[in-house]
């Protein structure tokens, strides 16, 4: 795991500006469409639109779909789009291009890979996860286990897993499924260490990289990870509900048997053969026809991220979260806020989460002040620091605004207590 | 099944023009972007772009995603989009709005519903289908059966099923899965009759409406169908790889147990509860975050189709296919072409398929002449007649051009024998 040395933190807004001016990633910000006067700290829910997306989609509509019609599958290369995007993502997660498929949603990909894992460990009956794992990860595992009737989902606390993974994994564990970076706290697991511990107990490991890919370096190859999934619409900036990815390690390409076998995962989809024969490598994880408009949008986001320096992204992510944490720590406690995100770099993703019983109205007041973060039930204010487009001044200003809101009790105004809506 | 009386077929191009001028659906054509000089007979593979799609997508990019950012889930109504599109589709297939979900691909939806069916018939081990069913329907069933290890896929010929469905279904058949309209031949099953025969044997039925929805009337309610799926990108004109739909009859809402349980199918996705509780009705078939750009595009197509008169669509579809068949029949045999599509209205979908050992170069020559159809291996020239935007003159001209190509042997030119590419 790449770990930059601690940053010398700026102590004034001017110092932040100077850092931004010298930032090797400064130019990347211009590649995104960001509304003026908004500090966007929710790119881990929905990344902003790359500037190039608009023209790419227009071309898809005006030239490809409407003029070339069905011929665009070949003529505009739609048929090769998913593998092309997969290759871009592979470079971000330490995978070979043939180990990644872009298809479906993260939920559906979790299902495929859990299904593969259960068949690779037929004598074991348990899917192991964390108590606090992202809901869809838990639901998909619970649903699959309940559907077979022969498996079960078992949960352990994050603390126990992080402290002593071997003790949490027993001989009945077919597969351990975890989020690399926790969606709520922003805490990051030691991917290589937990993978090794699971392998030592004969279990396989599936990593959810939704909150890592594009912001945190991941090296699946080095960790000898078995399976992984991740979202296209967070740090990859692929647009709302962009297709997800799935990683299948080369070691499992030949033996994998997915429960979900659609024609796009067939060796020769357009031979229209009556019987199924899986495509080689991770291509077998493709299933039905991909949503091309959403996939084109993802392609733009992935190529943008793939063109940035991963080490620089990580260094800046840590610099921004370090700065925000340092600016807030002196007064958090006095306003009833608690820092939930670990301060140790090796345990931190690319977000800062604060706990407060009234996190909802605080989040609303912050949004009104121009700092968009989000709320995660029941009590978390979650602030994502996407290094590709955020600046040191953004982290500085966000801390200032939060402080002002807390100091003046602005969040206690009745207008912030309106009914909760989804985000 | 709605069945218009036979049309008086026009016998001149002028008569075709007169029919087009009087066509109650004439105005609908203008709602599509169609390249000049192309007769597009492949809307059953990829429907053309509705004119309104461009502005809708621009708004999604320029205002919703890039300005509202994550707030667009509520602010722009993305969160309610899938149920809205589902309600539009429900009206086209004789379903209640709460019986339809829009999600994922047809392949993934086939999987969910087959999984539900197997659990509703736990003592039965067979998924029954047609030998010639669309490949992904066969692959998904084969993959699921192989993955459980306890089920098998059995195939019967279409002829046998159509002639005597009861004889093909045995006491081990948990679910019969069929395409309503055959992708290759365009032959249409008697949906109500086969459903009743399956029910009489205690089996459930899953209908693939990919080649029906938007072109052929379907009344799932009247037929007491259990399950159905269909594509968004064919006659619904939702754009390449647009999300698919899934129908779950009310009678199964309470008992259904899907193998694929993602957070969007949870009763309260944004409560982030640790345990799964299915949403009511067909909403439980949603899974992960939907691809919003593709879904917005589908919404435009579905609302367009939902605004047209279903009886008029069917009448025109039959008039166009009748006309094309009548124009070709006199000379088909002499050029080695065979009509594969049934002439009986009750057995015909919205396409005309012709068999020829050299269907590939014939299809290429036809495309070069401005008539876009497609080839289906090994020997089928497939011509889709989408009633929403095609005219009688199009059917007339397409027949003329095909005749000219056959008569002059144009298709025998070496340039049409270039390597096959996917379509
Ligand atoms: C009958 C039928 N089912 C399913 C599909 C495609 O399914 P998917 O959308 O999963 O690719 C097609 C595509 O042509 C089809 O004709
Ligand atoms: C860790 C994690 N996994 C999965 C998802 C979502 O999965 P899907 O794309 O299937 O909705 C999220 C969304 O926030 C997430 O944070």
UniProtKB/TrEMBL annotation, chains A, B:
- Per the record, the domain of life is Bacteria
Gene Ontology cellular-component terms for this entry are:
cytoplasm
Q: What is its EC number?
A: 3.7.1.3
- Name the positions where pyridoxal 5'-phosphate binds: 106-107, 134-137, 208, 211, 233, 263, 289
> Which InterPro entries has this protein been placed in?
Kynureninase, PyrdxlP-dep_Trfase, PyrdxlP-dep_Trfase_major, PyrdxlP-dep_Trfase_small
Mention one GO molecular function. pyridoxal phosphate binding
Q: Say which enzyme class the record assigns.
A: hydrolase
Q: Which UniProt keywords apply?
A: Hydrolase, Pyridine nucleotide biosynthesis, Pyridoxal phosphate
Which Pfam families did the record assign? KYNU_C (PF22580)
Q: Which cofactor does it need?
A: pyridoxal 5'-phosphate
Its pathway?
Answer: Cofactor biosynthesis; NAD(+) biosynthesis; quinolinate from L-kynurenine: step 2/3; Amino-acid degradation; L-kynurenine degradation; L-alanine and anthranilate from L-kynurenine: step 1/1
Reaction(s) catalysed by this chain, per the record, are: 3-hydroxy-L-kynurenine + H2O = 3-hydroxyanthranilate + L-alanine + H(+); L-kynurenine + H2O = anthranilate + L-alanine + H(+)
Q: Which residues carry this modification: N6-(pyridoxal phosphate)lysine?
A: 234
**GO biological process annotations for this chain's record?**
anthranilate metabolic process; L-kynurenine catabolic process; L-tryptophan catabolic process to kynurenine; NAD+ biosynthetic process; quinolinate biosynthetic process
| Role played | Catalyzes the cleavage of L-kynurenine (L-Kyn) and L-3-hydroxykynurenine (L-3OHKyn) into anthranilic acid (AA) and 3-hydroxyanthranilic acid (3-OHAA), respectively.
Q: Which HAMAP family match?
A: Kynureninase (MF_01970)
Q: Belongs to which family? A: Belongs to the kynureninase family.
Quaternary structure (record): Homodimer.
This chain belongs to the protein called: Kynureninase
Species of origin reads: Sinimarinibacterium flocculans
Could you read off the lineage of the organism from its UniProt record?
Answer: Bacteria, Pseudomonadati, Pseudomonadota, Gammaproteobacteria, Nevskiales
Gene behind the chain? kynU
């Amino acid at each position: 795991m790449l770990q930059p040395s601690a940053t010398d933190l700026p102590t004034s807004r001017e110092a932040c500006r100077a850092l931004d001016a010298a930032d090797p990633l400064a130019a990347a910000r211009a590649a995104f469409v960001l509304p003026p006067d908004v500090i966007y700290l929710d790119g881990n829910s929905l990344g902003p639109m790359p500037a190039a997306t608009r023209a790419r989609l227009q071309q898809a509509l005006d030239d490809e779909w409407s003029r070339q019609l069905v011929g665009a599958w070949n003529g505009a290369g739609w048929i090769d789009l998913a593998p092309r995007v997969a290759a871009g993502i592979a470079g971000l997660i330490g995978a070979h291009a043939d180990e990644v498929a872009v298809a479906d949603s993260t939920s559906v990909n979790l299902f495929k890979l859990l299904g593969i894992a259960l068949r690779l460990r037929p004598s074991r009956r348990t899917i192991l996860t964390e108590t606090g794992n992202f809901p869809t990860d838990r639901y998909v595992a619970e649903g699959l286990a309940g559907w077979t009737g022969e498996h079960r989902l078992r949960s352990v606390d994050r603390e126990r897993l992080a402290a002593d993974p071997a003790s949490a994994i027993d001989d009945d564990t077919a597969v351990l499924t975890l989020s690399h970076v926790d969606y709520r706290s922003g805490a990051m697991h030691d991917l290589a260490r937990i993978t090794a511990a699971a392998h030592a107990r004969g279990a396989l490991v599936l990593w959810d990289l939704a909150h890592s890919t594009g912001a945190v370096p991941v090296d699946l190859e080095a960790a000898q990870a078995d399976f992984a999934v991740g979202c296209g619409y967070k740090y990859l900036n692929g647009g709302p509900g962009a297709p997800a990815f799935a990683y299948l390690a080369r070691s499992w390409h030949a033996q994998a048997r997915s429960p979900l076998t659609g024609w796009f995962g067939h060796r020769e989809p357009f031979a229209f053969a009556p019987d199924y024969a899986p495509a080689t490598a991770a291509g077998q994880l493709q299933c039905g026809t991909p949503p091309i408009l959403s996939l084109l949008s993802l392609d733009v986001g992935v190529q943008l991220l793939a063109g940035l320096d991963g080490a620089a992204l990580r260094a800046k992510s840590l610099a921004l979260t370090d700065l925000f944490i340092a600016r807030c720590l002196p007064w958090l406690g006095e306003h009833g806020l608690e820092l939930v995100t670990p301060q140790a770099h090796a345990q931190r993703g690319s977000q800062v989460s604060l706990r407060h019983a009234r996190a909802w109205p605080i989040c609303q007041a912050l949004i009104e002040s121009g700092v968009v973060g989000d709320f995660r039930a029941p009590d978390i204010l979650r602030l994502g620091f996407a290094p590709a487009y955020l600046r040191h001044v953004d982290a500085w200003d966000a801390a200032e605004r939060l402080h002002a809101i807390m100091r003046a009790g602005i969040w206690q105004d009745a207008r912030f207590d309106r009914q909760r809506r989804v985000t």
